[in-house]
Amino acid sequence: MAAHMASVLLTSLSEKEGKTLLSWTIEAANEHQLLQSEQSAQDWVSHINTSLGAAKTRLEGLCLLGTVVRQCSADTFIQHGTTWIRLLAQVLQAYDSPLTLQMASHVLAAVVQQAAQYPEVAREVASTHVPALVQSLLGAQDHQWFPAALEALHSCMKNFPGPCGPSKGKVESVLCGLMDTNQPRLSLLVQQTCPLLAGCGGGGAGGVKYAEAWAHLCDQVLGSLHQVLDHAYQDMETGLQTYNTPQASLHLPTVPESDPARTFVLSTRFHNLCGCLQQLVSQEFPSVVRIPTPDILSFLCRALGVNAKMLFGKASMEHVLLMSALPKMHCSALSILEALIISCRSYLVPHASIISQLLIQTLGWTTSEEGVPGRQRPHSTLRSRAYTVLTVWLNVCGAAGGVDSHADIILQHVLTDTTPQADTTKLKASRPGSQEPPRRQKKKQRGVDVSDQGLSGHRKVDSQANSDVCSAALGVLKTVLEVVGPIIKPSFHKEVQEFVIPLLLKIQQNQSDPPIPYSCAKCRKGLYQLLLAAVLVLHPRWPPPTQCAVKIFSVGQQDYDLQVSSYCREALLTCMSIIHPRAPTLQSPVIISDTPTISKPSTNHQAPSFQVLRSNATQKNDSTNGNLFTAPSFKAASQSEGMVKDCPSQSESTSPKSIQMERSGTFSEKLTREEDKAGPSVIRLDGSSNSSEGEESSSGDSVELLEDIQSSKQDSSTLETRDLNDGVSNTEKKLATDMETVPENEDVVLIQGCTSAGRAVVPADTTDIPTAGGVKRKHESDVEGEEDDSQDTDIQAMLASFVPDSTPDEN
């Protein structure tokens, strides 16, 4: 199907209106990728080769050739690649129209790039065609199609540097003559082609010649830049600074002696040379080279050392013209610094103080104290560039970049560029002693003189003014929080939160007319990114604004810009993962089935769950020596059911503090075991009708008896622990007698609970219980305000009362 469609499209070009269908045919071929198979491309290749031989159809053939080169298979290119280069060389040597020669240069650049990927084609092209192509392209220097020829020359030097070696000197002289050009496209091509001079010719053993050529070219570019500064800053430098200036330099044209041509040529040359050095540092090179970092930083200190404030008081023409060109020169210098940071990365940490100071210095002198709301501020391009380089520096070196010491200064600059300006009206009062207008004019001029232009409801407003500076500044502040947020002062976090939260609330309240420059979606997204960074970055002395951020991100999903609303949705999901973690926290309620059991150090095994405790307690005849089973705390279990309340103690001197447990039929049914019979191994807590309030238990020195007293008149009962020497009731004596009959090795389990018929008040104070062996154990304690005696206090609060492993003494 693809071959049939390609054939139909090619046939349509032979019609009378074929030229008008050319662009439509190429677009359809690119969309359907019709020429990937060799069968589909065969007819197109034959038509192209025929078209390139005739002057009338040459332009059509070149357009089709560019499409085929991008889509054809490897076999097709290997078969016809050399033929295409030969045909293109013939076209460049012919006297065709500039449009045809320009198109031929574009196609040649693409064909040469593809030819370098196939060794079979590359060998023949390098030995036969490249030297002749370079000579033909250099001959187009004075013609209109020279930018396209320079693009093809760049492709030849990049993909076949060895055959371009004999023409290296001529190429260098052509590029030096173009250093003063101000055409954007030609200037960019010069900057990208100049670093390729170091790779022209042979590399020698291990690429030694490549490394030497690169270092020599770098010295030449640096020396030429210092020469430009010598002419531009000749009256501004004090002479106290010393810079490492290379002796070598490029052979550049002579600088004009008169202004304004002199300043214009110097600023343009400085921009192009900075672009060459930037490409030289950042482009890949076939050999390992040593970047002269101290020399480059020395040049940057000199270039950024002169600012507009130093030139403001000078009234000469040269200084005024230099002040007008200074922001562009500083932007070019910052581009070199950015390329150096990206290439060297952490190797620049020893020079961190210099780099940070250069960026802070640039932000300092470009600050404008006064600005008109809705209008662009001065030096906005330079400030945006400084913020961008500062962001790159923070991302590369992090806290090692030394920006934490300048955090407050950076914050003030960011707030200046991101805070919306208030629209104010200034009143002008008449000066004393000024000539008063006639009386007739006084009668006509009723009101207050506001300004020379008078009151007006119309003013020029740009809703996108300063949006680039604002977005770059917000990016810097976000990066500062992410990199050095935990180690800076808490006041920094406070000021950031006090800035971003009210501003976002103000924007959300008036989405139809947000303050300038936040009508730009990029600035609003920067604010939301800053808020999320404030939530994620934790400071030990300042809390994150998580609660406010959740509401703000929720409302931000209604933003009319899709990118902003989608980011708010992602940020809200991030906040939700913080508020609702995937794993339970330490403060979550304890479930009885998951509560671990803790026994004495001498125990051989632990009860895995509450159900195991119950099953072990019912086995009367089974006994284990020295085993101690502890049931989970009823308070911990009740907290998960939501039925525990703190109640005040009845008497601070004689009775402990208690925990009042409200009646819960469902939970009490789980604890009450009606099928169990009274026995020496288990103490049932299902209550007794004969018990009354105020009964006491003489448990000896081991067991604290908890009874649930069911009464028709009273709704709760109190269980108190008294001293061993106090009197005991008959019921208590009977219980004590029953406990003495328990075998020594029998396990005794104490289960705290409540009956379904009423309430039970369980002591919560810490009580020392003397044991038979004279060792004291701590009873479960939940007393508020008690000192933390050990790290196990929280664990003991969730455990049941300790049960001794022997029967109490009769004494």
Automatic annotation (TrEMBL):
<dbReference type="GO" id="GO:0005737">
    <property type="term" value="C:cytoplasm"/>
</dbReference>
<dbReference type="InterPro" id="IPR016024">
    <property type="entry name" value="ARM-type_fold"/>
</dbReference>
<dbReference type="InterPro" id="IPR011989">
    <property type="entry name" value="ARM-like"/>
</dbReference>
<dbReference type="InterPro" id="IPR012980">
    <property type="entry name" value="PELP1_middle"/>
</dbReference>
<dbReference type="InterPro" id="IPR012583">
    <property type="entry name" value="RIX1_N"/>
</dbReference>
<feature type="domain" description="PELP1 middle">
    <location>
        <begin position="517"/>
        <end position="585"/>
    </location>
</feature>
<dbReference type="Pfam" id="PF08166">
    <property type="entry name" value="PELP1_HEAT"/>
</dbReference>
<feature type="region of interest" description="Disordered">
    <location>
        <begin position="421"/>
        <end position="462"/>
    </location>
</feature>
<feature type="compositionally biased region" description="Polar residues">
    <location>
        <begin position="709"/>
        <end position="719"/>
    </location>
</feature>
<dbReference type="GO" id="GO:0005634">
    <property type="term" value="C:nucleus"/>
</dbReference>
<keyword id="KW-0804">Transcription</keyword>
<keyword id="KW-0678">Repressor</keyword>
<keyword id="KW-0010">Activator</keyword>
<keyword id="KW-0677">Repeat</keyword>
<protein>
    <recommendedName>
        <fullName>Proline-, glutamic acid- and leucine-rich protein 1</fullName>
    </recommendedName>
</protein>
<dbReference type="Pfam" id="PF08167">
    <property type="entry name" value="RIX1"/>
</dbReference>
<feature type="domain" description="Pre-rRNA-processing protein RIX1 N-terminal">
    <location>
        <begin position="10"/>
        <end position="182"/>
    </location>
</feature>
<feature type="domain" description="PELP1 middle">
    <location>
        <begin position="378"/>
        <end position="430"/>
    </location>
</feature>
<feature type="region of interest" description="Disordered">
    <location>
        <begin position="761"/>
        <end position="793"/>
    </location>
</feature>
<dbReference type="GO" id="GO:0006364">
    <property type="term" value="P:rRNA processing"/>
</dbReference>
<feature type="compositionally biased region" description="Polar residues">
    <location>
        <begin position="648"/>
        <end position="669"/>
    </location>
</feature>
<keyword id="KW-0539">Nucleus</keyword>
<feature type="compositionally biased region" description="Acidic residues">
    <location>
        <begin position="783"/>
        <end position="792"/>
    </location>
</feature>
<comment type="similarity">
    <text>Belongs to the RIX1/PELP1 family.</text>
</comment>
<keyword id="KW-0963">Cytoplasm</keyword>
<feature type="compositionally biased region" description="Basic and acidic residues">
    <location>
        <begin position="720"/>
        <end position="731"/>
    </location>
</feature>
<feature type="region of interest" description="Disordered">
    <location>
        <begin position="637"/>
        <end position="731"/>
    </location>
</feature>
